[in-house]
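Recap quiz, item 2
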Amino acid sequence: MIVLGIETSCDDTAAALVEDGTKVLASVVSSQDALHGPFGGVVPELASRRHLDALVPVMNEALKRAGLSLAEVDGLAVTAGPGLIGSLLVGTAFAKGLALATAKPIVPVDHLSAHIHALFLERDPPEFPFVALLVSGGHTDLHLVSSHTKTEIIGRTRDDAAGEAFDKVAKLLDLGYPGGPAIQRLAEKGSREAIPFPRALAKHDSFDFSFSGIKTAVANYLKGYSRDSELSREDVAASFQEAVVDVLTQKGVDAAVRSRVKGIAAVGGVAANLRFRELLEARAQARGLRFYFPSIELCTDNGAMVAAAGYHLLKDNPDGSVLDFDAYSRKKALKEPFPDPRPESSG
Amino acid sequence: MRDEAVTFLSRSPGQTFRLGEMLGRSAGAGDFLALTGELGGGKTLFTQGLALGLGVPEEEYVTSPTFTILNIHRGRVTLYHYDLFRISGPGETVELGLEEQLFGDGVTVVEWAERLGSDMTGERLEINFEFAGERERTITMRGLGKSGLRLLAEAKDIIGGFRGDT
């Protein structure tokens, strides 16, 4: 089954074609691919209109790269949330219209489930159940994943997302946006142990995270309130990065051990951080756990992961076309099941 | 519009949180709080306190809306929690529907309100957070119009009660 995945939950417009939820035929992301066309390549933040302008060229480019026509697509999957509501509405409205016009089945996909499904596009996917650390600019959650369509959030951030902390500390250090890659580069020249930034909730008896305090600690350090030595921006970057990935990997591995699963995965934009990958690998191995990451390009938002997650929903409901769904900006309850946001009656 | 200001030294993050919580208890539909100041100043912390005062359940975490731009929390009255950190400047805010939210059915808090520029109009309580030490923050509040001045009067009472407290 060939699924067209459409993703517009944030700044990037993305479309991809995936076969059977495992094989990427083509994946195009507007802000990363230098495409020739009516849009310049970079989609500015927040402009829902840009998603609208980019959607058709991005989808057509994906079809072209896969050597397919729209008629050869078996079903559609679109991110329904969480994300920026305006951006989500553009993507869902477009996908619904396309489904109606082509008489193809469509399913709404949860963005968090999509990130986890990036793992199944790799050669060695995890076996259920496993624990997934979903770490990005907008999310920092620990998921206990028991099947393609069933997962439970067992921990989350109480304030800032980890990726947001990277972006904000990058801002404090006058580095560019996005902050993750910029901090990683600067950190390579610094010492991880130079500054003991706080590890919030590290020993707390829950799998919740907090990254607001470390951002403030960096601000204080840069202002000189908590510093008696000369300022090294490299050391700040390296020590900050270490504090964040230390807490993430510690809690992730603890959660996997306590949940009695055999594997731990990291997904989302922050999972592209090399120090994070290195430390998670070391800590997972020390506890006898298998570890999984998507390839770097599948960590950040993309349409392939949406198509992969959508495949499992379409497979269970091949004839159903679910047009009756809404975009949503944020998840409400802690233990709300996902990823199927379809109304009960249609399932 | 009549306006009045007060400056206060918050001695700890706990005090910043309590200022928010106590203001939240008296805030009502239509109130607009415009928060400004540096990263790490305590804007989200203040809003977490405000949410608790507004009756948002404690288990519903009031996280930073930096990525989503707007988070909505249901309490005694609805809290519209905006964050304009990623907005480049006035003009883009029109797309957010902020105007429709103001004076509506809930309390609106806008972090990084400086990005609104001249779009920031109407009755409001402006709150600026400035570093005064590792834990201390200088909090300057300015009430504008009837709703802003009422919130400012409340804030003055709350600050009065903090004296001698840490």
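The radius of gyration of chain A is 20 Å.
Chain A has two domains: 2-116+299-346, 124-293.
End of item.
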